[in-house]
Specification:
This protein is of the alpha/beta class and about 210 residues long. The protein has 8 helices and 6 strands. The protein has one domain. It has a 6-stranded parallel β-sheet.
Length: about 210
Amino acid sequence: MTTINTLKQANSLVGSLTNTTKMPTLSYSIPAKECKQGQKLRKLNNSVCSTCYAQKGNYVRYKAIIESQYNRLQSLKQPFWVNAMVYLIDNSKKTKESKLFRWHDSGDLQNPDHLRKIIQVAKATPNVKHWLPTKEKRIIENITNGKMPKNLIIRLSGSFIDGQPPKTIFNTSTVTTNKNLATCRSFEQGGKCGSCRKCWNKTIKNIVYLKH
């Protein structure tokens, strides 16, 4: 185990955290093109991945963003990845203030070891609520057996627009084209979370997002 002493050192090991305009906290971004289930769904009409927001706009417009995402992806093999992520989350101003963190504003779980590392990070940062949206049902159900740190909420994402929530013991999310059915109201708030924290709330079984 190595000792992480500075943000610069942590960033050099795992890449910097990402700062999106929508959310009240920081997140971590890896390439959406490397999603396992996502790339299968992208080929299907009406799937939520067929118009993936993380495969357009700034995510693909700037070479520096693409390179940063692939550097983070490669860093998952780094033996000190957990230590560095814990340091970044504990010492980044926006995360310290919000006490929240989101995994993967772009990309998804790569393998079981990836999830195990995230669980270790959550356990080591008990004062932060972690939200992990994913389509990797087999990974989360095989690895966690329904058990996870209290401060980590996993939401299994539905596959199709206007479809039903996945059948799972975990929290879920779906996408709708009907504004009246959307429980995420960020579209009424300039595309931002504002004071809403539903995604991090385990008592809310399913979050319904408006297609964008």
